[in-house]
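Could you help me review a protein record that somebody else here produced? Do not assume that whoever made the record got everything right. The record follows directly below this note.
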Amino acid sequence: MEMAFDDREVTERSDRLLAVDGRLDRPDLLVVGGTGRNCGKTELACRLVARHARSTPVVGLKVTTVDRGDGPCPHGGDGCGACSSLDAPWVVSRELDRGSPKDTSRLLASGACRVYWLRVLRSELADGAADLLNRLPSGWLGVGESSSLVSVVEPGLFLLVRAAGSTGAKPSARAAAHLADGVVVSDGCSFDLELERISVVDGQWALRREACAIVIDGGAEGRWGTDVDAALRRTLASLAPQFDRVLVRPGTVGRHASPEPAAARPDHPEAWVLVTPPVAGGIPPGLVNAMFRRRSGVHAVVATIHPAGLDVSLALCRRELLREVIAALGRTPGAAADLGDRFSVRELRPEVRDPGAVIGRLPVAARRAAAAAPACLRAAETP
């Protein structure tokens, strides 16, 4: 049964503004980029909208960046004139036509409750994106079509679409390729990605990866929460949509023992394993995806979160570090970061910072939405 949603215009959010590495953190946003024109990115975005709009309201977003307001069409040729006549740093317009072949119309026809198009000067992308995303109501999902957007936004998921047989990529796609959660190949009719691998967990976009997660069970009772069994169940439930294999193994005492992952080739996805203790609120997909994006060039990525005021560390590591990481997490919350003495470790630390540094440059509507938040969290990346 399809659900009915209130489609009244909402232009302000009242929830907390977050930032990750200087980019606006939006785990409720899935971004689809493309390596070139007519590669299938709009079709993929439309299929994702249609798949999820039955259960959760979805806002479709399209971003077009230009170098100057009176310049040529960014797609080449004469274009439609919408970007060449840009007379402001950015303009956000709402699509109302479901019958046009335009990308925004296709998103609306696919089931999006509303669709917005941001035309923005490249130099003003950060502010324009903040204005655009301010129109995505709390509790709704966003599906955006853009490659440049991820330079200023940390999305829940970023998929880069490439046409089968294509080898080149436009500059914006090359610049964003290292941030992609996956490259999806399109033959014009279908994709090499199983769309059922993409889901929503607690309002955040999740990707079920061909990888393994291990939950450490045991240690001091109550160390990771007062109800360890409930935390374990919640952690397993949150990881199941994100990993093909989720195992439980003992930390310091032996219950729920499971074998280690089978031997993996260095280039196999299971060469990387997420290791975490039980967490009362579960493991958010936005954090897992952020850790996977930062694994290049290091042996492990370590993050510390603070559920219920507790310090809890989890690690995404190469398989050869598995024993060391499990032992470290079994000792103290910060011990995994100490592996940096012997291995290359990238650390993600949530930190509180002055919200004025983020809010001061936002549009007036976004500033009002952010005013209710006493502070912004920042995941500071330490090489």
